[in-house]
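Minutes, structural biology subgroup

Action item carried over from last meeting: produce the structure token record for Chemotaxis-specific methylesterase (Cesiribacter andamanensis AMV16). EB confirmed the sequence was re-checked against the source entry. Recorded below for completeness.
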Amino acid sequence: MAEKNKPRYNAVMLIDDNEIDNLINHKMIEASNITNKIFTHTGAKSAIEFLKNIEKLDGAGESILPDLIFLDIDMPLMDGFQFLDEFDKLSGMTKGKCKIVMLTSSINPQDVNRSKNTNTLKSTSTSRSPRKTWRS
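Output recorded by EB:
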């Protein structure tokens, strides 16, 4: 019986410069009971550093790595696509475990096409507008 209530993911990471979107997404993830751990970053640089630090933990790192990363495309300093470029430099263990869902409020066709050319699960629009999913 205990298996039935076990969360689907060990950990989930939110990367979005909009703190309100992070809060909403955090609450939705909590309510869905898909994980017990939610890591939240308001910048892609801090998220990459977090993942690099986990990799340094040797054997313990894999149990901490997020299974699912929700990544905003449009952020200052380092955008979602730049995050993906840095993510590609991480270890095979990290790249193999972490699945990425790209989030955006952009309706720019270039962003849609660019997101389709990445190794992500899907892209979905964010913000307080209706959500639209782009399959990759």
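Discussion: The helical segments are 19-32, 44-55, 61-64, 80-87, 92-97, 109-116.
Next step: EB to file the record with the rest of the batch.
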